[in-house]
Specification:
By secondary structure, the chain is mainly alpha-helical. Helix 5 packs parallel to helix 10. The two termini are 21 Å apart.
Length: 254
């Protein structure tokens, strides 16, 4: 996996582009609570395979989530994440086998792009908030959790499912961000553990990871400073635009 097996040596400008992609993605996640995977997976497959890109993004996403959790951990509500988290981990187990069997899934990426755009359009035009009783039904976090874990385990872009759920459940932006990052952290750490046992990492991966860690810490911290200054509605709109752009990118360029 990574450079040794593919026989590629990146030029300095290519390495710089990778760093810039990671920096922008981590900044977006610091501001909106998500978006690192969506942004990074729209560009990193130009340098790596889909599988390599997904594992790289998931490993750095753990670091980004940890940085944000360190600031907002007091706002985590365990009761709000347990069902969602259980369903998402089930989705991650299934996605682990699919990612190993099919490294390239261009048709699936286009379908994912269409689905993301449909979700954004729905949220923009549907002004009616779901009832509190509806959001308390176990089926809602089960659905959002499973698909978030499943898509996240394949493409590292399952965030929108969790984002939509927590945006509807929490009116407080700090609770939204803290619980969202907790789910991201556990899901990505779980997937990395599965791939680690499967022997999907090597020394080249570690080199890129170490470079990426420094970048995401800088990007996420700059983004979090912006997060503190923005109202919830602005954060929500920003998040929706990120999803829309990512969906279009998947359809056009995949």
């Amino acid at each position: 996996m990574f450079i040794r097996e593919r026989g590629l040596i990146f030029m300095p400008y290519e390495l710089l582009l990778i760093v810039i992609i990671i920096l922008i993605g981590s900044f977006i996640q610091g501001v909106s609570g998500f978006g690192f995977g969506l942004f990074a997976m729209g560009f990193l497959p130009l340098f790596f395979t889909v599988k390599e890109s997904a594992l790289f993004v998931m490993s750095l996403a753990v670091v980004v989530s940890a940085c944000i959790i360190a600031r907002n951990y007091k706002h985590i509500v365990l009761k709000a994440v347990l069902i969602l988290l259980g369903a998402s981990l089930a989705g991650r187990v299934i996605s682990f086998f699919i990612l190993n069997a099919f490294g390239e899934m261009d048709v699936m990426k286009k379908l994912l792009g269409l689905f993301l755009i449909a979700m954004v359009i729905y949220l923009f035009f549907n002004k009616k908030e779901p009832s509190e009783a509806m959001m308390k039904r176990p089926i809602i976090p089960l659905i959002f959790g499973f698909f978030g874990g499943f898509i996240g385990g394949i493409f590292a872009v399952g965030g929108p499912f969790f984002v939509f759920y927590f945006l509807l459940v929490f009116k407080d932006k700090y609770k939204y961000s803290a619980n969202l990052q907790a789910v991201f952290f556990v899901n990505n750490a779980f997937s990395l553990m599965l791939h680690g046992f499967n022997g999907d990492f090597n020394s080249e991966f570690l080199l890129y990871f170490l470079v990426g860690v420094v970048t995401v810490v800088i990007g996420s911290n700059i983004g979090m400073k912006m997060f503190d200054k923005l109202p919830r509605e602005t954060i929500k709109k920003f998040a929706m635009y990120v999803v829309l752009v990512a969906g279009l990118n998947l359809i056009i360029f995949s």
